[in-house]
Design a protein that fits this description.
single chain; globular; four-stranded mixed sheet
Length: 438
Amino acid sequence: MNNDELSRRRQAAVAQAAYSVHPFFPERAEGSYVWDADGKRYLDWSVGIAVMNVGHSHPKVVEAVQRQVGSFQHLCFAVGMHESYIRVAEALGRIAPGPSPKKTFLINSGAEAVENAVKIARVATGRQGIVAFTHAFHGRTHMTLSLTGKANPYKAGFAPRAAEIYRAPFPYVFRNPFGLHDEDAVADAYLAQLKDLVKTTIGETEVAAFLLEPIAGEGGFIPVPERYLRGLRAYADRIGALWIDDEVQAGMGRTGHWWAVDRFGLEPDLVCTAKALASGFPLAAVVGKADVMDKVGPGMLGSTFGGNPAGCAAALATLEVIEEEGLLERAAAIGEAIRARMNALRQRVPGLGDVRGAGAMIGLEFVREDGVTPDPELVNGAVAHARERGLVLLPTGTYGNVIRLLPPLRMSDAELAEGLDLLEEAIVTVSEGALAVA
């Protein structure tokens, strides 16, 4: 069965809402590569949207899942407990940011993690207000699409939305409205906006939690300045609110640390993780300060499949691989190489307006000749060109003008060089074609 035949079957049977960026059907994957139904090989720099951080079909993960499935597949944790759930909770508690004792609740997806974090924050504080941010993506459930910042295609048409959700400006340094260029000054300006919003529109005694991605994912791989995160932490403490750290895309070693906030030595009250946690198996978690987590009583949270034994086995193996193979350090090295190459490319491609990120989570923002107007056409052209040449990339960003780079953390230097060559070729080719047309 080839790509064309599968496309016809998909058209007839699958809801059109289930959108796919690339028109191919992967049949096999190993390490840094995937092969489609036509037998074409691709270097995968999407890794399932930040899921396969340890690469595809890592032998240790595959073996752990096979062993677990051979024992038993499911017995809901609400029915009878299993050790692997406890082991995952213990492992996440050990690596969670900050020194406070931690406890963990397991669910299936990033959206579920965020939704449960909101529930925990509201019970723990006795308040209802949740401050989310522009450029945010937190999921597609009723609560999480209400928290998400982008209307199309995520929110438009789905109403009414959840109550007591407030929106603050995301600290987007590259597109800050203040005309500032110093990152600390930009952070201070955004913090002042946030505090004014809370004081005048919400009320400081009404805020249960601030919910923030330390590097906005779907919003365009936008890093939050350290000064802003420190100010947010201090402000939350002062008004009795919690800080929910959404690390669904940025966590599990992607930034060169277990968590993006580890770069600054900060401790959120609650952390949401999913995606790369179990290398493609449905598993997510809320990891929080023990005294906050235990404000929620028995039975107030639950999930039929949350903490499934196969997912737990995959997670434990994934965490071991990241640690044993030094993938935190590898992510940092990959990021340095990508940033160096792309910053050099900026001198040749005026439309490459910004290179940003942390570790192996890099965003490339493209703009038109004025240096400001988003250029999604260039991004889409470059992504398509790269695919034809055998490199899988993903567009992202509120304006669709960012290429997000999510290479596997185990890839070799040769694979890194191959990917960078194909990426640069795609950007240069499409940029020069756009200039010729103009």
